[in-house]
Amino acid sequence: MEKIPMTAAGYASLEVELKKRAQEERPRIIAAIAEARAHGDLSENAEYHAAKEQQSLNEGRIAELEDKLSRAEIIDVSKLSGTSVKFGATVTLIDEDTEEEKSYQIVGDVEADVKKGRVSISSPIARALIGKSVGDSVEVVAPGGARSYEITAVRYLA
């Protein structure tokens, strides 16, 4: 089985979601199925079919979360240091065309969220940054076209 790299915060958020789905959503859905079943004829009971579909989606997500958590390789970012970019680094970049400053943390696939400044280790920008240091220029070939960035800072924050 292939390990899934993630930060401790990413692991904790998956655990919270799993707990919520298993301890809150599952019983709520079971109750909804029981209530819909009490309405009689199941072949034309839209509430029953909707609840069963909801149950299927919830159980699928629970299985997916359990799989990811069992294969997680937690990397403690607070213990990392150095000047080159690696997993867990928070990298500050300046777009060489627009002079716009951006900051991204390189995280595992399951915890990536660009709106929160976390990019996946397998994303084009992270792959271009890995191994580089402050002052280096990187060209990122992304679906929107090639962009050039200069690395201005590399930090390892928990």
Ordered list of secondary-structure elements with their pairings:
Layout: E1 4-7, H1 8-37, H2 46-70, E2 72-75, E3 90-95, E4 101-107, E5 118-120, H3 124-129, E6 137-142, E7 145-155
Helix pairs in contact: 1-2
CATH architecture of the largest domain: Roll
- Number of H- or I-type helical stretches: 3
Order of helices and strands: EHHEEEEHEE
Unreliable spans are: none
Q: What is the molecular shape?
A: elongated
Strand content: 25-35%
Residues in helix, %: 25-40%
Largest sheet: 5 strands, mixed
Radius of gyration: 22 Å
Give the CATH H-level superfamily of the largest domain: Transcription elongation factor, GreA/GreB, C-terminal domain
Structural class: alpha/beta
Strand order of the largest sheet: 5-4-3-7-6
CATH topology of the largest domain: Chitinase A, domain 3
What's the domain count?
2
Using the coordinates above, name the CATH class of the largest domain.
Answer: Alpha Beta
- Average predicted local confidence, pLDDT: 89
Task: Please provide a written account of the structure.
- This protein is α/β, with parallel strands linked by helices.
- It has two domains: 4-75, Helix Hairpins (Orthogonal Bundle), CATH 1.10.287.180; 77-155, Transcription elongation factor, GreA/GreB, C-terminal domain (Chitinase A, domain 3).
- It has helices at residues 8-37, 46-70, 124-129; strands at 4-7, 72-75, 90-95, 101-107, 118-120, 137-142, 145-155.
- The strands form two sheets. The protein has a five-stranded mixed sheet.
- Strand 6 and strand 7 form a beta hairpin.
- Helix 1 runs antiparallel to helix 2.
- The radius of gyration is 22 Å and the shape is elongated.
- The two termini are 27 Å apart.
- 20% of the residues are buried.
